């Protein structure tokens, strides 16, 4: 079992990333709905792993699924874990809850989410067309989507900034734990020499940017989709 975990570092990373979301789920019943919605909404992004592999990084996948279908089980666990805590860590830490600005039905919520996904698709096509490295492209997409939301909801700017910071902090701590388990993993598995090749706390700078951007958009995705805002509990 130990050797299995040693050989499958992406699985270990994914399991680490799902733990904060589980903790928030257990401690805050009112945040379970956002966690569920964001978990479901995040799953399509697991299917984009083939855009990152092997240029950005080259981990080992269970059953070598990356070569068979372009993504792995680890990707699904990872995006669900990241979405779970990045979308709720702001409300969890600062003791906020969601309050509806104006009631909108489920169909309207789905329409809003669909619009956001269409914007993501447009950005993704532009990133691929201009051959922007996907790690930077994904950051551009998340920031671009956030700007679209800010255009309609300026009250979400501050939550996005703080949500990004808190997510980056948790993201960094989890990666440091991974680094303790697998010394030099980022130098071996990540192809940082093709990018900035800058490290902070032993982590590639791109990962910190990705972590911040994830929290930046995830914090405001749910309140935008459900037309709600943050209030103190």
Write the layout of secondary structure elements.
Layout lengths: L1 H6 L1 H19 L4 H15 L2 H4 L12 H5 L3 H14 L2 H5 L2 E5 L5 H24 L4 H17 L6 H25 L3 H5 L9 E2 L2 E2 H21 L2 E5 L1
Antiparallel strand pairs: 1-4, 2-3
Helix pairs in contact: 2-6, 2-10, 3-6, 8-9, 9-12, 10-12
Walk me through the structure.
It is a single chain. The chain has 233 residues and is mainly α. It has helices spanning 2-7, 9-27, 32-46, 49-52, 65-69, 73-86, 89-93, 106-129, 134-150, 157-181, 185-189, 205-225, and strands at 96-100, 199-200, 203-204, 228-232. The strands form two sheets. Strands 1-4 form a two-stranded antiparallel sheet. Strands 2-3 form a two-stranded antiparallel ribbon. The radius of gyration is 17 Å and the shape is globular. It starts with a helix and ends with a strand. The model has no long low-confidence stretch (mean pLDDT 95).
Shape: globular
**Number of distinct helices:** 12
Instruction: Kindly provide the radius of gyration, computed on alpha-carbon positions and rounded to a whole number of angstroms.
Output: 17 Å
Lateral strand order in the biggest sheet:
1-4
- What is the total tally of β strands? 4
Percent of sequence in beta strands: 5-15%
Span between termini: 44 Å
Order of helices and strands: HHHHHHHEHHHHEEHE
User: How much helix is in the residues?
Assistant: 55-70%
Number of domains: 1
pLDDT < 50 runs, ≥5 residues: none
Q: What is the residue-mean pLDDT, rounded to a whole number?
A: 95
- SS class: mainly alpha
Largest sheet: 2 strands, antiparallel
């Amino acid at each position: 079992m130990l050797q299995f975990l040693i050989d499958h570092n992406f699985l270990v990373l994914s399991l680490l990333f799902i733990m904060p979301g589980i903790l928030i789920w257990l401690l805050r019943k009112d945040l379970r709905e956002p966690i569920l919605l964001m978990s479901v909404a995040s799953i399509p992004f697991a299917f984009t792993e083939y855009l990152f592999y092997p240029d950005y990084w080259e981990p080992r996948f269970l059953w070598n699924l990356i070569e068979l279908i372009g993504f792995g089980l680890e990707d699904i666990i990872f995006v669900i874990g990241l979405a779970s805590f990045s979308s709720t860590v702001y409300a969890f830490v600062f003791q906020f809850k969601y309050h509806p600005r104006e009631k909108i039905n489920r169909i309207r919520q789905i329409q809003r989410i669909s619009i956001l996904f269409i914007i993501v698709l447009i950005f993704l096509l532009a990133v691929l067309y201009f051959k922007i490295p996907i790690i930077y492209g994904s950051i551009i997409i998340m920031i671009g989507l956030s700007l679209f939301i800010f255009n309609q909801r300026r009250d979400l700017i501050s939550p996005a900034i703080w949500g990004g910071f808190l997510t980056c902090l948790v993201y960094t701590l989890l990666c440091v734990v991974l680094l303790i388990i697998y010394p030099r993993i980022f130098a071996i598995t990540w192809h940082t020499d093709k990018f900035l090749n800058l490290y902070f706390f032993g982590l590639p700078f791109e990962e910190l940017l990705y972590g911040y951007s994830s929290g930046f958009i995830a914090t405001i995705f749910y309140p935008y989709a459900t037309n709600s805002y943050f209030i103190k509990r």
